[in-house]
Amino acid sequence: MAQKKIALACSVCGSRNYIIAANPTRQERLEVKKFCKYCNKHTLHRETR
């Protein structure tokens, strides 16, 4: 069975740079500081659904 995928979107430019596996037990949206290649710096990335 394939896992459901969720994208992480940059909070500055809005580009969806990262794909992660969905975790059904997580109640809140994931927020992680990651590198955005379009902004060329580390920014906050939020889980999209």
What does this structure look like?
This protein is mostly beta strands and 49 residues long. It has one domain (5-47): Ribosomal protein L33 (Rubrerythrin, domain 2, Single Sheet), CATH 2.20.28.120. The protein has no helices and four strands. The chain has a four-stranded antiparallel β-sheet with strand order 2-1-4-3, with no helix packed on it. A hairpin with a 4-residue loop joins β3 and β4. The radius of gyration is 11 Å and the shape is elongated.
Short descriptors:
Rubrerythrin, domain 2; 49 residues; elongated; mainly beta
Write the layout of secondary structure elements.
Blueprint: E1 5-10, E2 16-21, E3 31-36, E4 41-47
Family: Belongs to the bacterial ribosomal protein bL33 family.
Pfam families: Ribosomal_L33
Protein name: Large ribosomal subunit protein bL33
Q: How far apart are the first and last residues' alpha carbons, in Å? A: 20 Å
Structural class: mainly beta
Tally of structural domains: 1
- Radius of gyration, in angstroms, nearest whole number: 11 Å
CATH class: Mainly Beta
Number of beta strands: 4
Shape: elongated
Protein name: Large ribosomal subunit protein bL33
GO biological process, one term: translation
Pfam families: Ribosomal_L33
Family: Belongs to the bacterial ribosomal protein bL33 family.
